[in-house]
Write a structure and sequence with these properties.
disordered C terminus; about 0% strand; 5 strands; mainly alpha; 71 helices; about 1450 residues; two-stranded antiparallel ribbon; three-stranded mixed beta sheet
């Protein structure tokens, strides 16, 4: 006790000093102490817990922080402690150290897995404990005290299943790679089940897990990377496992297959699955496949290996079986294959998800390789058709036009194989793939109706090889009928497959079956519209609605062509029930007729004159229209009493004022939706309740907007102005307190509410048109900002607004049809004048700034879809135009603040606000997207629409802007950004195309316009300064070309004419009147553009040896193929283009060393290469000669070229011949002399008498007379078809008759003008080359007109007369069938004295003449009819029979197989 007391009496410092003294012992005492401690721990230790505890000391970092005596052992003591403990335990147990540590580590893993239960992810505490444990294992592995192989085996022997995250972290820390872990599992099938279930559970737990998204993606990515890396590599050891278990590579494939099968099963049962399962599928597809495949795209170097694993999802997706799938042949009898195809449309959510996993295939693999694999799968496997169709849809949606061509090749291969081997499976795949391709890529793939005609509509179709193929096809189509959709049955009936005549019963049997099936659908072929789209997948339109659409289309065609549409004429004969019961009632609906007949009424009058409208129907129509007019006059003056409307309108105003209080108070935002609902109710009270039938009509509403004169209903305008005013005030008030991104959803709710009242939408858009298009420059800043915000939110609810048809001031002329509302603003924001340009910048700046601020926190993808590209493109055009500062490459750097607040507070001017927006980083980021880039062509269309006289820029400023835009901005810019890649030719081509397009639109809007409104734009040719820039560019191109000529050895087509040829080629070869007029208009505009260019550009130069020569071949080709077909005379161009060519010829000859000889050589080549130019020169020589002589004297101090001298001499000779008694002309080429004489006679028409002039020609003038006859016949055709000023049809016919009578005495040589045979026409072949195609087609009319002025009985003895007469008659029938017979016979020229005033009368007169003449012709006449009999039999079998009966050598032959009758 005393000792204790003494000790207690000592101070604390003394005790500590004594303790420190004891610790300063000998070193051997320290080692002894450690050994004692180890012995003590070894008796009471738990090695499993020891691994966790020792590791945790290093994780928490508090150990060994200040002891100097053990500092040397600070880093090694814990590790050596663990190793020594394990070594001692191993020696006691008699097992190796590595095996013991592996077992202990596996025991710890099992403990952690048991704590997790069924979860696949660790919690935070478990993850921290695991981190310390893994650090200990790394240390053991570094000291070679850990066996990885045994550790992997022990993990699979655990009672609790391994947690997926544990396996991943072992792989991530480099302790045990996934390959080694998975390959040591004893049961491969159990491993596959465990992995698949773990993956599915992981995807389900992903949303509720604390694990961040990036870590989750790493888990899935690492696993799939291992599977793909090892599952698809080629190895010779894949068969090393000889028992029934799967080899490792097959295990990886089995896991991927199981997961993909799970995905496909869930998607197929999407409606039955819960939302968590669907989200799990999306998680797998998004975080796994995308990440893994993007990773492999950057790491896989072997193309074969890459394509190997890329082919696998395709095969699995297409062959995955949801339930036992019968073959296509058996399924054909069980359900509609068309419905299978329809259910797999990409718009269906399950189809999109189904092929989401396979989409990287379409990116990595090319179209050719992908379609090859698809074809192999279809041929070698039993497939799931839902998946096949989704795959094809994805291919068509994502592929390029090259991919579409491979799909077409695939269809062709399937059909070829099907008919070659009579393989029904291939036939089904080929035919049923076509509608899917047509549906997915209508712009690139042929519509189904056209494809079906191309595939089976001719003898060269896939089925045309034999009778067996025909029967095979119709057997398939017949089996398909019970399951076929109506629109495809219509295609098969209206465009049936081609069959030989003897197999026609097979076709008729199928058509009867298909019609019966259509009758089941209550669809009658007789009710099909005239212009109905047979291959459309939309629901069938009611017959009366279809009739209204047919009437609208027919009126439009009639307005364009001024002719009754051929479809309507055919329907009046061959589809009379529909025509009389549907079409005519729709056409003759009573209405208020305009004072000036419109196209609708003009069409009715034309049909009445053609006797296509029964008189009683027309009379009833006129009476009903009169009744409508009387009712209108009686009720037009009565106005709605405004007192009834006043009270609901006041209530609406009060609710709108209440809304303003809510939007300006952030604390009251929750009340906005309810208040908007109240406003909607009050608005409905003002508008009135709609009837049920009106609601049905509103569902199919299509808004018609008259751009030049927008009409707003009087009762609607006050309401719309109230709504728009309230909205603008609310926008300004809310913006005063907070920016758009913190204003809530009130603007969107307000606009949606307004759009919900569909009866108000037409007036609303018309009022916006008035405000923006007509009154925009006069609006205040508050109005502009409010309207811009309103328009932005209108674009958001585009799906609620019907499509818009924009009409111009042309009657029934539509500027644009079927526009979504977002596209409407591009038409309303027109930059025509300086005021409208400034307004456009203010409006678009407000709209874009609001959108950027409103959606600043949204994703870039959402921001891109929320901003209308038209607003950005307008800014890209207007801002550099009005601000020089914006034209720099860098516009002053970035600004952090959006320009919305200063813009809404009027602190900045509109130009500064636009520049502030221009410098925004987010705005510049938008411009990187192709959608928002303004191309050169779009820029030109905007610039061409500016009126220079009303422009805000002066002429010099505008020129400076043009040079910057063309030469500094667009010319060097890459093509991907709308530029020209530095190619001056490409820039010139874009300018030419844009100018012509602009002029064409101006011409269309100028045709038949009514009184123009105050603010309408007059038709124009575009900005003339743009034409100047085009001239400069083309001169640079031409000079560069000519400078490069000495080094060039390859002749290339003239750049300018190649460009023009491509444009005309794009129009197609439409023989209809509308297509012909469109082509004529295009060529007229091209001619005007050529006249505005330097004339020397028409001629190119080339080197021949050491001399420069002239080359006019491209211009000759352009004239021969295009220009001559639009000249009114038919064989002579206009004076302007003729003089332009000759002036260019003289100017271009300056570069030649022998200018006169080159000019003469070109004129000599015109005789055979381009005779129409010499005919044109003869026509205009009196005006042309002084111009050319003056031009030559200005350019050269040398005599005139011989070619020009000769043309002058011909003109003098013709004039002398007419003014004197000379009997011959100076001529080395008869047809040129005839041309000069012909035009000289026309110029002296009053004093020149046909008989005297013809009689004075000498005996050797037969060829000259023949050429004169040709020119007279052309004049007759011109006078009848399109009479130009100064041409007299009867006089031309009289001239032709006098010349023909003169030639009759010389052996009937005048027939050569009309003969189409090469031998007889050789004398007129050059002149035929000078005539237009239209005039040559009208030769049959001229032939019979001329024939009836002569004595035909005298000509019947000539052997060539009957073949020519029959040939002309056949061509006359063909003209009638094509609807191009325009001229008629003159009354005074008809032999019987009666006037055939329509084409049928012309044909009948010619036919009667032939019937009387055939028996009187000699037998030699029939020897030239071999090639005409077949065609004659097709068009007029009776005439063929008459010819056959009179032709004795072949009278016994059977030549009457055809049974077609024209009349």
């Amino acid at each position: 006790m005393e000792g204790s007391g003494a000790a207690a009496g000592r101070g604390l410092s003394a005790l500590l000093a004594e303790r420190a003294k004891k610790r300063t012992c000998e070193p051997r005492n320290v080692s002894e102490l450690q050994e004692a401690a180890l012995r003590l721990l070894s008796r009471h230790q738990n090695l499993s817990d020891l691994l966790l505890e020792v590791g945790s000391s290093e994780c928490s970092k508090p150990l060994y922080s200040g002891s100097s005596c053990v500092g040397d052992c600070e880093d090694s003591a814990p590790e050596s402690f663990v190793v020594s403990a394990l070594q001692e335990e191993a020696s006691v147990l008699g097992v190796p150290l590595g095996i013991l540590s592996a077992r202990m580590a596996a025991a710890n893993i099992e403990k952690i897995s048991a704590e997790c239960g069924k979860a696949v992810l660790l919690n935070v505490e478990q993850r921290q404990k695991l981190s310390c444990f893994l650090q200990t294992l790394r240390d053991l592995l570094a000291r070679n005290s850990f066996c990885r192989l045994l550790f992997a085996q022990e993990l699979w022997r655990m009672q609790s299943p391994l947690i997926l995250e544990l396996a991943w972290r072992l792989h991530r820390e480099g302790l045990l790679c996934l390959e080694e872990l998975l390959e040591n599992h004893p049961d491969a099938s159990a491993l596959v089940d465990w992995l698949c279930s773990s993956f599915r559970l992981l995807c389900r737990q992903a949303e509720g897990s604390s694990l961040d998204t990036e870590a989750l993606q790493h888990i899935l990515t690492d696993f799939v990377t291992v599977f793909l890396h090892n599952g698809f590599q080629k190895t010779s050891e894949t068969e090393k496992n000889l028992d029934s278990q799967l080899v490792p590579s097959k295990i990886y494939c089995a896991v991927l297959e199981g997961m993909l099968a799970w995905v496909l099963d869930v998607i197929a049962k999407e409606k039955q699955e819960d939302s968590s399962t669907l989200r799990a599928v999306e998680c797998w597809l998004r975080c796994n496949f995308e990440a893994a495949w993007q990773h492999l795209k950057g790491t896989v170097s072997s193309k074969g290996r890459c394509s190997g694993w890329l082919q696998w999802p395709l095969l699995l997706s297409l062959t995955h079986v949801l339930s036992p799938q019968p073959s296509a042949k058996r399924r054909l009898c069980n359900r509609s294959l068309r419905q299978v195809w329809a259910s797999a449309l990409l718009c269906d959510t399950s189809s999109r998800k189904r092929m989401f996993a396979a989409q990287p295939l379409f990116v990595v693999l090319g179209a050719e390789e992908l379609t090859g694999h698809l074809q192999q799968v279809l041929e070698a496997n039993e497939v799931n058709w839902h998946h096949v169709l989704s795959c094809i849809s994805t291919l068509l949606s994502l592929s390029t036009p090259i991919g579409d061509s491979w799909v077409k090749d695939l269809l062709g291969h399937l059909l070829t194989k099907g008919f070659k081997n009579y393989d029904l499976e291939s036939l089904i795949r080929g035919i049923l793939n076509a509608p899917r391709a047509a549906t997915r890529r209508p712009a690139l793939f042929t519509p189904y109706s056209e494809w079906f005609k191309l595939a089976f509509g001719s003898a060269s179709g896939f089925h045309g090889s034999s009778k067996k193929a025909v029967v095979f096809l119709f057997q398939f189509l017949s089996e398909l009928v019970p399951f076929e959709a109506p629109q495809y049955l219509k295609v098969h009936i209206m465009h049936p497959p081609f069959v030989p005549a003897k197999y026609r019963p097979v076709l008729l049997e199928y058509i009867a079956l298909a019609k019966t099936r259509l009758a089941d659908f209550k669809i009658a072929i007789e009710d099909m519209g005239l212009y109905e789209d047979l291959s459309s997948t939309k629901d069938a339109v009611q017959p009366h609605c279809q009739a209204l659409q047919d009437v609208e289309k027919a009126v439009q065609i009639f307005a364009d062509t001024r002719k009754i549409p051929a479809v309507v004429l055919e329907a009046s004969v061959f589809r009379r029930p529909y025509y009389t019961a549907r079409f005519l009632p729709a056409l003759l609906m009573p209405r208020l007729l305009p004072e000036t007949p419109d196209s609708h009424m003009t069409l009715i009058d034309a049909l009445k004159r053609a006797e296509k409208i029964p008189p009683n129907m027309y009379s009833r129509f006129i009476e009903e229209c009169q009744s409508v007019k009387e009712k209108f006059l009686q009720g037009g003056c009565s106005e709605t009493k405004r007192g009834d409307l006043k009270q609901p309108l006041e209530l609406l105003k009060a609710e709108l004022r209440a809304l303003k209080q809510l939007v300006t108070d952030q604390s009251m935002q929750d009340g906005v939706p309810a208040q908007v609902a109240v406003i909607s109710e009050k608005l409905a009270g003002v508008l009135g309740r709609t009837k049920d039938e009106d609601e049905v009509a509103l569902l199919n509403l299509r808004i018609k907007l008259h751009l030049s004169v927008p009409e707003v209903q009087q009762q609607d305008q006050e309401v719309i102005d109230l709504l728009l005013t309230s909205f603008c005030q609310n926008v300004m008030a809310a913006s005063y307190f907070s920016p758009p991104d913190r204003q809530g959803i009130w603007p969107s709710l307000f606009v949606k509410m307004v759009c919900g009242h569909r009866q108000l939408l037409p007036s609303l858009l018309s009022r916006l048109c008035q405000l923006i298009y007509h009154q925009g420059p006069s609006l205040s800043d508050a109005h502009i900002i409010g309207l811009a915000v309103f328009v932005v939110h209108l674009n958001e609810v585009e799906s609620l607004i019907p499509e818009v048809d924009i009409y111009s001031w042309v009657p029934h002329g539509v500027t644009a049809r079927g526009l979504p509302v977002a596209k409407l603003w591009d038409h309303l924001l027109a930059c025509r004048t300086g005021e409208s340009t400034v307004f456009c910048m203010r409006f678009c700046t407000a709209a874009v700034a609001y959108s950027l601020c409103k959606y600043s926190s949204s994703s870039p993808e959402f921001l891109i879809t929320s901003i209308h590209p038209g607003f950005v493109k307008k800014l890209l055009y207007v801002v550099p135009r009005l601000s020089v500062e914006a034209r720099g490459t860098s516009c002053g750097g970035d600004l952090a603040e959006f320009p919305w607040r200063p813009l809404s507070h009027s602190a900045l001017g509109y130009q500064k606000a636009a520049l502030c927006l221009w410098k925004q980083t987010c705005f510049k980021r938008l411009l990187q997207e192709k959608t928002f880039q303004l191309t050169l062509q779009e820029w030109l269309q905007l610039e061409l629409g500016v009126h220079p006289d009303e422009d805000v820029l002066s002429a010099s400023e505008r020129q400076e802007f043009h040079y910057w835009a063309l030469y500094q901005h667009y010319l060097p810019a890459p093509a991907a950004r709308g530029g020209c890649d530095g190619d001056l030719r490409e820039a010139s081509a874009v300018l030419i195309s844009s100018i012509l397009d602009f002029c064409q639109r101006s011409e269309l809007s100028n045709d038949g316009h009514l009184e123009k409104p105050k603010h309408s734009v007059p038709p124009r040719r575009g900005n003339p300064e743009i034409h100047c820039r085009l001239q400069e560019m083309l001169l640079e191109v031409e000079l560069a070309h000519r400078r490069a000529l000495p080094d060039s050895h390859v002749a290339e087509e003239h750049f300018l004419f190649r460009m023009l040829r491509e444009r005309t080629k794009a129009l197609g070869a439409d023989s209809a009147e509308g297509g012909r007029l469109l082509r004529q208009q295009e060529l007229t505009l091209q001619t005007r553009m050529l006249l505005g260019l330097p004339p020397s550009l028409l001629i190119t130069t080339q080197w021949k040896g050491n001399e420069v020569t002239l080359d006019c071949e491209d211009f000759f080709c352009f004239v021969n193929t295009e220009l001559k077909n639009v000249c009114s005379r038919g064989y002579a161009l206009s004076y302007d283009i003729t003089a332009h060519f000759f002036r260019g010829l003289l100017s271009a000859s300056l570069e030649c060393s022998r200018s006169a000889q080159e000019v003469t050589a070109v004129l000599a080549s015109c005789r055979t290469r381009c005779p129409v130019l010499l005919c044109s020169a003869a026509c205009w020589w009196q005006k042309l000669e002084p111009v050319l002589f003056c031009e030559w004297r200005r350019l050269f101090a040398a005599p005139l070229p011989l070619g020009l001298q000769q043309l002058g001499e011909l003109q003098s000779s013709a004039s002398s011949f007419l003014s004197s008694d000379a009997s011959s002309l100076a001529s080395d080429v008869p047809w040129i002399s005839a041309a000069f004489l012909h035009f000289a006679i026309q110029q002296r028409a009053e004093c020149a008498k046909p008989g005297e002039v013809v009689g004075r020609l000498g005996p050797a003038s037969e060829q000259l007379l023949l050429c004169l006859l040709f020119f007279s016949v052309m004049d007759f055709i011109s006078a009848r078809a399109a009479p130009p000023e100064g041409l007299d049809g009867p006089r031309a016919l009289d001239w032709s008759s006098q010349i023909a009578q003169r030639l009759e005495g010389k052996g009937l040589g005048w027939l050569a003008v009309f003969c189409s045979g090469e031998t007889e026409c050789s004398r007129c072949q050059i002149l035929r080359g000078a005539a237009s195609d239209h005039h040559l087609k009208q030769l049959p009319v001229a032939f019979y007109s001329l024939l009836f002025t002569l004595q035909p009985e005298r000509m019947l003895r000539e052997p060539m007369f009957l073949p020519v007469a029959v040939d002309m008659y056949i061509q006359l029938l063909q003209l009638f069938r094509e609807g191009t017979v325009a001229p008629r016979l003159a009354q005074e020229s008809h032999r019987d004295g009666e006037e055939p005033g329509d084409p049928l009368a012309v044909i009948e007169a010619a036919r009667q003449f032939l019937v009387r003449a055939i028996p009187q012709c000699p037998l030699e006449s029939f020897s030239h009819l071999h090639q005409l009999l077949d065609l004659c039999g097709e068009l007029d079998p009776e005439l063929k029979a008459a010819l056959t009966n009179c032709w004795q050598p072949t009278a016994e032959g059977s030549l009457s197989d055809e049974e077609l009758l024209l009349f």
